[in-house]
Amino acid sequence: MFFGTTLHYHYRLPLCLGYRSRHSDQTHTSKKKKFLKIIMTKLFEWLSALAILATIWISLLTNKVENSFSKEHPKLLLYTPLISLASFGLYAVFAVLYQTLNFNNCEEAAEELLKDINEAKTSLAFEGYKFPERP
């Protein structure tokens, strides 16, 4: 600010970093400060969490933060990212298996689909299409 005047900066943040502006296309006529409202996408949330965890891990690994655990278990601390990645992979596999095993059948949707298929077959047969015979 220079002598009571307010400078307004309009930033165009890259979409590849996960930034989206909620009001990027709208124009405002008010002379109040304009703030860019940023919505974090899931990618940016995951990258932020990963960066925070990596920072904590590196600080513990290089003894920037001294504690008894990092001195007593240096190998466990070294393999923590691999253990975390394997745990996340196992969780993902079991979550997919659980959802697959508990998948509900949709009888009404199946009946509706068969009805649509039969209607399409009769319509095509009416227009002259000949279906191949099945053995």
From TrEMBL:
Transmembrane spans: 43-61, 76-98
CC annotations in GO: dolichol-phosphate-mannose synthase complex; endoplasmic reticulum membrane
Location, primary (coarse class): endoplasmic reticulum
Gene Ontology BP term (one): GPI anchor biosynthetic process
Membrane topology term: Multi-pass membrane protein
Ranges in coiled-coil conformation: none
Protein's pathway: Protein modification; protein glycosylation
Pfam families according to UniProt: DPM3
Subcellular location: Endoplasmic reticulum membrane
Keyword NADP: no
Keyword Transmembrane helix belongs to the record: yes
Domain of life: Eukaryota
Family label: Belongs to the DPM3 family.
Record's function text: Stabilizer subunit of the dolichol-phosphate mannose (DPM) synthase complex; tethers catalytic subunit to the ER.
Assembly mode: Component of the dolichol-phosphate mannose (DPM) synthase complex.
Protein name per the record: Dolichol-phosphate mannosyltransferase subunit 3
